[in-house]
């Protein structure tokens, strides 16, 4: 008598593979990936909704163009240490400002290159350009902070705008910013700037770093009238002169690792108003010249943004790494689902495929928005997992520095900082 061979379905006339016949390891891996892909879809769906909401409620710098022009003198103060590479571009953008009375005070802080010569050539004897050569810095000051203080002391304007030499301004930036600050009685106006992506590591690292900072300081919280979360961006800080002097100037924040956050907190302590706007394409910043400098700079930023709290930093390590690995899990779920379905595990395979597609769809849509609004090339989305892991490593490195009491170097000064307890925003 003929007996059916093992594994042959005599009713269908072909091989039969069912979920029940799969190895427990295959089923477990498929389920785990499907669950992670589903979690990825939920997380990025929330992020996408949050981004849409923030876009509707974030004030824009360009809104100031619809307000009356303010005729006050604005002193633009730029600390510059060996900025020959970018100083001509900065001077040109200042000279091109429209509908604004300005003076550009450039403090050349112990420069060893030809920054001064390039500045003077770009100025073309424009009386609004005032270079100040500074050859010293006290031991208890960071170089940039001290140079900004020197510039403020020499400034003659009713408004003081502190910015960096590597920041590129649209022709209407100052006119728009001063109009907003004057119309709304803002004591400190700051801006989210557009980060450049001239190097691959900028396109890969800057987006996850920036969105992590945005999650900590979303515009609707930083601009909240009753319970604001103190935040400012040191690349663009506009003060009314009287309030800046009332704060005590840069001397009041010289011992802080991030003077911009310290300024925002100081303004709130004096019941002043801080406003943060989105500059869109009106302000562009090239922050760092190497991947190592970029990661070191973000490490310093996240130490202070997390209030020097090691537990909070470690939680952000998990969040950032998870945000990077989520799309990878979605790809894995999709791939494994296709294989399982092809082997006859129809239900389990379809579930894994659907979870993978959902995870990729929501994460892809959200990242498309993130990279687009940040002005980053969208091809950088492919490097999102790598960027997240690098940012998570920078945050973890900051937590280790805190735990071990390692000094953080910035501006020519070593800061020995100690962990702090969580601060309720």
Q: How many angstroms does the end-to-end distance come to?
A: 81 Å
Give the spatial strand order of the biggest sheet. Answer: 5-4-3-6-10-8-11
Biggest sheet statistics = 7 strands, mixed
Tell me the structural class.
Answer: alpha/beta
Helix content class: 40-55%
Could you give a short description of this structure?
The chain is an alpha/beta fold.
How would you portray this structure in words?
The chain is an alpha/beta fold and 425 residues long. The chain is 50% helix and 14% strand. The protein has 13 helices and 14 strands. The chain has helices at residues 24-57, 87-95, 115-123, 143-154, 173-183, 200-216, 219-222, 241-247, 259-269, 291-305, 310-342, 346-373, 384-404; strands at residues 8-9, 14-15, 73-80, 101-109, 129-134, 159-163, 167-169, 188-192, 194-195, 236-240, 274-278, 283-285, 408-410, 413-415. It has a 7-stranded mixed beta sheet with strand order 5-4-3-6-10-8-11, with helices on both faces. Strands 7-12-9 form a 3-stranded mixed beta sheet. A hairpin with a 4-residue loop joins strand 1 (8-9) and strand 2. The longest helix has 34 residues, at 24-57. The radius of gyration is 26 Å and the shape is elongated. The model is unreliable at 1-17 (pLDDT under 50).
Which labels suit this protein?
single chain; alpha/beta; seven-stranded mixed beta sheet; disordered N terminus; 425 residues; 50% helix; 13 helices
Describe the secondary structure blueprint for this structure:
Layout: E1 8-9, E2 14-15, H1 24-57, E3 73-80, H2 87-95, E4 101-109, H3 115-123, E5 129-134, H4 143-154, E6 159-163, E7 167-169, H5 173-183, E8 188-192, E9 194-195, H6 200-216, H7 219-222, E10 236-240, H8 241-247, H9 259-269, E11 274-278, E12 283-285, H10 291-305, H11 310-342, H12 346-373, H13 384-404, E13 408-410, E14 413-415
């Amino acid at each position: 008598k003929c007996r059916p061979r093992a594994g042959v379905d005599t009713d269908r006339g072909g091989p039969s593979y069912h979920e029940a016949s799969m190895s427990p390891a295959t089923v477990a891996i498929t389920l785990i990936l499907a669950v992670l892909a589903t979690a990825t879809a939920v997380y990025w769906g929330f992020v996408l909704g949050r981004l849409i909401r923030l876009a509707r409620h974030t004030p824009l710098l360009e809104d100031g163009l619809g307000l009356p022009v303010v005729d006050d003198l604005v002193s633009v103060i730029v600390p510059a240490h060996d900025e020959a590479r970018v100083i001509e571009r900065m001077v040109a953008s200042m000279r091109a400002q429209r509908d604004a009375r300005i003076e550009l005070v450039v403090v050349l802080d112990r420069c060893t290159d030809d920054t001064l010569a390039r500045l003077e050539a770009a100025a073309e004897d424009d009386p609004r350009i005032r270079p100040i050569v500074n050859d010293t810095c006290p031991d208890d000051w960071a170089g940039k902070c001290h140079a900004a203080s020197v510039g403020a002391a020499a400034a003659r304007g009713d408004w003081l705008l502190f910015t960096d030499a590597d920041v590129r301004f649209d022709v209407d930036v100052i006119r728009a910013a001063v109009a907003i600050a004057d119309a709304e009685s803002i004591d400190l106006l700051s801006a989210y700037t557009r980060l450049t992506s001239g190097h691959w590591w900028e396109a890969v690292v800057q987006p996850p770093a920036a969105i992590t900072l945005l999650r900590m300081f979303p515009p609707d919280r930083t601009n909240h009238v009753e319970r604001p979360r103190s935040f400012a961006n040191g690349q663009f800080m506009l003060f009314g002169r009287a309030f800046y002097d009332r704060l005590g100037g840069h001397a009041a924040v010289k011992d802080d690792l991030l003077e911009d956050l310290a300024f925002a907190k100081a303004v709130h302590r004096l019941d002043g108003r801080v406003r943060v706007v989105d500059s869109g394409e009106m302000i562009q910043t090239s922050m760092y010249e190497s991947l190592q400098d970029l990661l070191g700079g973000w490490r310093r930023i996240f130490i202070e943004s997390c209030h020097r709290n090691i537990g909070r930093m470690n939680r952000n390590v998990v969040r950032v790494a998870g945000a990077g690995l989520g799309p990878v899990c979605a790809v894995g779920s999709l791939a494994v689902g296709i294989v399982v379905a092809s082997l006859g595990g129809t239900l389990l395979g379809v579930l894994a495929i659907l979870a993978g597609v959902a995870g990729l769809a929501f994460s892809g849509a959200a990242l498309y928005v993130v990279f687009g609004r940040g002005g980053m090339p969208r091809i950088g989305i492919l490097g999102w997992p790598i960027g997240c892991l690098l940012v998570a490593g920078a945050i973890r490195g900051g937590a280790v520095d805190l735990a071990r009491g390692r000094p953080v170097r910035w501006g020519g000064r070593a800061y020995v900082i100690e962990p702090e307890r969580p601060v309720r925003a």
